[in-house]
Write a structure and sequence with these properties.
This protein is an alpha+beta fold and 478 residues long. It folds into 4 domains: 14-58 and 85-101; 107-212, Transferase(Phosphotransferase), domain 1; 243-363, Phosphorylase Kinase, domain 1; 368-467, Transferase(Phosphotransferase) domain 1 (Transferase(Phosphotransferase), domain 1, Orthogonal Bundle), CATH 1.10.510.10. It has 14 helices and 23 strands. The protein has a 7-stranded antiparallel sheet, sandwiched between helices. A 6-stranded antiparallel sheet has the order 1-2-3-4-6-5, with helices on one face. It has a 3-stranded antiparallel sheet with strand order 7-9-10. The protein is globular and about 75 Å long. The chain starts with 13 loop residues before the first strand and ends in an 11-residue tail after the last helix.
């Protein structure tokens, strides 16, 4: 096993003993771990496949076990689709244990609904699964229960059936706040769906039933998105399961966890200016310098944010640096299903409270800029549709890009990527958002100012995409 397993398990497979019965419990594979609290395994009991959730022998572990026991018992009592409980008690070694049946050939809904459909068959399957998911959530609510962590990873799909898991997050509806809790729970689930997958969200609502108005659902989605995004963006600036932050006086480095120990990448971080000098120049300006860098078989872009003067450095005291904004904006877009090159590392130099030179390292986008693609495919409407959906997606999220020139938009006929996120901005006012979106559209159309026919096509497609939005103001509050 790649890392030491918790709860006294040092290697797999291994046998454990329950407090009842003669058959040993065999742990075969670690599925998930929360260090110091609990771990989940697949295994065997009497040669039958099972899932084992172990809780450490501590006050916190006992509390987690009780929540799990209450949740799975409530789901079973309501006859909701959930794996059957096999065992609920201590093990001989003292850990608390929940054993449930294993569902063979089941699919995590993240893999089904959390990605764009690549064919009509996949789109039809997503619609069926979305409708079933909405019906499952309604069944849960009608049983007087909610799932406080209703994300796609806590639902499984098998043989046209949605299954509920993670009983620890199942709670009874409040006596006087039942409808508001149901609405918030529905909004939480819908907020997990990529903004480009509006048809899936529509099918979830259809499966749930139209108990709430479209405006109520839109507000609930926006509240859930704001909370989820806020929590995630805070993680991008600290050490967590996805990132590692190294902060010493005068220097901050945040990088993706899988790159820790990658010697070529860490050598690049040690001499970013040298990498820029030796790389292929993409831009050399007063405020920023970009270079394409080859690292083994990887192509990266290193962007240096220059400090022009001491007045510029003083202004940076009053706001988040462009490097940090771009780093967070990259993950903001990706978490909602809008494509942009993956940010890999952020480096900032400081002198006391004053910010200095900063660097952003991202994957290189090998796609063609959208104007070059259009020049090779002038009879294709794919680009116009993709640009329209991008604008609509930004509006749903309450965002504007701020610099829609062709160099910042890449396309290959299937995938559209948005680059240069320094000016990407969140708007909490609907009127200001709509003005900013209009400016983005105007700047986008200006790229084809010499081709009025294509400008007209873009205007039609963008108008249709915006007109079809169920929630026109994204995260906005007024």
């Amino acid at each position: 096993m790649s890392k030491a397993a918790p709860c006294g398990v040092d290697s797999l497979p291994t046998e454990c003993r329950l407090t009842t019965g003669d058959q040993p419990l065999v742990l075969t594979r670690l599925l998930r771990e929360l260090p110091g609290r609990r771990s989940t395994y697949s295994g065997l009991l009497a040669d039958q496949p099972i899932v084992i959730k172990l809780f450490v022998d501590s006050a916190a572990g006992k509390r987690d076990f009780r929540r799990e026991r209450h949740g799975v018992t409530a789901l079973a009592a309501a006859q909701l689709p959930t794996p059957s409980v096999v065992y609920l008690d201590r093990m001989q070694t003292g850990e608390w244990c929940v054993v449930t049946t294993f569902l063979p050939a089941c699919v995590d809904l993240v893999k089904l609904l959390g990605v764009d459909a690549l064919s009509q068959e996949a789109e039809a399957e997503q619609a069926r699964v979305g409708f079933a998911l909405g019906g499952c959530l309604r069944q849960l609510h009608d049983s007087g229960l909610i799932h406080k962590d209703a994300h796609l990873g806590n639902f499984l799909y098998q043989d046209e059936q949605i299954w509920l898991i993670d009983g620890a997050e199942v709670q009874a509806l409040g006596r006087f706040r039942g409808d508001s809790q149901k609405l918030a729970n529905l909004g939480l689930l819908l907020a997990q769906i990529p903004v480009s997958a509006g048809k899936i969200a529509e099918q979830i609502v259809n499966g749930y039933g139209h108990q709430f108005s479209a405006e109520q659902i839109s507000r609930a989605i926006n509240r859930s998105r704001r909370r989820r995004e806020g929590r995630y963006l805070k993680k991008t600036l600290r050490t967590c399961s996805e990132f590692v932050a190294k902060k010493v006086p005068g220097h901050v480095c945040i990088m993706r966890r899988e790159l820790v120990g990658d010697e070529p990448f860490e050598a690049l971080l040690a001499d970013l200016d040298g990498a820029i000098s030796n790389g292929e120049s993409l831009k050399r300006g007063n405020t920023a310098t970009l270079a394409k860098v080859t690292l083994g078989n990887r192509l990266l872009v290193v962007k240096r944010y220059n400090v022009k003067s001491w007045q510029h450095r003083l202004r940076l005291l009053l706001r988040v640096s462009r490097a940090v904004r771009s780093w967070q904006n990259g993950y903001r877009l990706r978490m909602w299903g809008l494509q942009t090159p993956l940010p890999l590392a952020l480096v900032e130099h400081k002198s006391g409270l004053l910010s200095g030179t900063a660097y952003l390292i991202c994957e290189y986008s090998a796609l063609t800029d959208c104007k070059a693609y259009w020049q090779c495919h002038q009879d294709s409407g794919l680009l116009a549709q993709a640009l329209a959906q991008m604008i609509a997606g930004l509006q749903v999220l309450g965002l504007s890009h701020g610099d829609m020139k062709v160099d910042n938009i890449k396309f290959n006929g299937e995938r559209l990527e948005l680059l240069d996120l320094d000016s990407l901005q969140r708007w909490n006012s609907r009127s200001r958002l709509l003005r900013a979106i209009a400016q983005d559209v105007e700047r986008l159309l200006r790229n084809w100012a010499d081709t009025p026919a294509y400008v007209a096509q873009l205007q039609v497609d963008i108008g249709l995409a915006l007109g079809q939005l169920k929630q026109p103001s994204g995260f906005t509050q007024r």
